[in-house]
Amino acid sequence: MHSIKFGTSGWRGIFCDDFTLENVRVVSQAIADYLRESGEHERGVVVGYDTRFMGRYFARETVRVLAAAGIKSYLCNRDTPSPVIAHEILRRKACGGINFTASHNPYDYNGLKFSLASGGPALPEITHDLEGRANAMLGEVCFKEMPMDQAYAAGLVEDIDPRPHYLEGLGKLVDFQAIAASGMTVAVNALHGAGRDYLDAVLADAGVKVVSVNNHPDPYFGGAAPEPCASRLGDFIELVKSSPEMALGLATDGDADRYGIIDADGTFIEPNDILPLLLDYLIRVKGQAGDVVRSVATSHFVDAVARHHGRRVYETPVGFKHIGPYVSAKQVLLGGEESAGLTIRGHVPDKDGILACLLVAEMVAVQGRTLKEQLVDLGRRVGEVYHRRDNIRLCAEVESGYAAKLATPPTQVEGRRVVGTVAIDGVKFLLEDGSWVLFRRSVTEPLVRVYCESTSPAGAERLVKWANGFLTE
What we know:
This protein has 17 helices and 22 strands. The protein has about 475 residues and is α/β, with parallel strands linked by helices.
């Protein structure tokens, strides 16, 4: 029997293997017990799901467990993006939210994401608590359920449509008038996920010319993982590239919390470049105040922009649950991570791919330049930064010595002094010229994720090569 394990963004598993109705009921009971003990359960829970198999069925089972515990559920009436659920938690002042999604993972996965009253993902101390409760109940019928008709009759479940309120909130953050006035045409790709009828619809309603693709639900996601990365968006990239009138391609993942951006010439723009571009735009063009928070694996291009504008950078472990609290506390203007996560002050403390795409569209419309042109200009003003990422598979012999190697960092890397280390998540070597290398051990596979950054493409490639040699030689 598989144990319940929460990762960086909730509990995920494979259908009919570890992600089963029985386990969903157990985890739901663990959440119900936690909420009752916290004393906040009377404010109710927002419950939603994306376009995966049996999403609404899993959501209804959770509602039945919560109802039996005397906890009201606000059940979304259709597949709903994660950031929309976060927004609804805040709007209703609910005690939390439960969303059935495996985000960008393949179709044979599903997951359960538990969000707090803040609208942000549950923090590690809470997910560890839920793991303990759930694993203690595995194999036993420790959950209670109430039939749906009784739950409705008792007022313990209410069907809701959070879409209008969320879209209204976007109008306070995005200059739709500027996007429409630019006359640009935008391609939107929902990747068959819950983002359909959100990004494409709100742009079209504002008078923007939109070409929408993959905007119908498909639990197979067109036969590939719903991840808005360059390798997944080949056809979409070609669509943008071959259409002279197209200014941008905007994509969201399965639950629309991640984004993928295609420039007018078909170039995929990495999130590590989108974050500094938007930070600079918000400060320089929109005149907004505030600092920035990023994960330890995210590009220091963000730091260069912050330094240029005299803003502070906060660094967190990987996972938006660590970034969200800074947003909730209104400490920062922008929060982001290299894995296509972004939010801004005044919005939810969780990543929002819909908002990210809209802000990029506004930035291009207002400045009248392609993203590549804006990147060149930004590099001239704050300094160029190049990033690379690799996965290093470990044999048993090398794996046994991994921790010891990182515990005694080298004094030099590629002829440059190591001037510091960061160990909040993996180990990051900081070099004297601003370059850096981060090693993060996978918790599920015998591999190490390596992130490298330098002031030149060749320098970044050399760091990747050095990292491989450092671990394996």
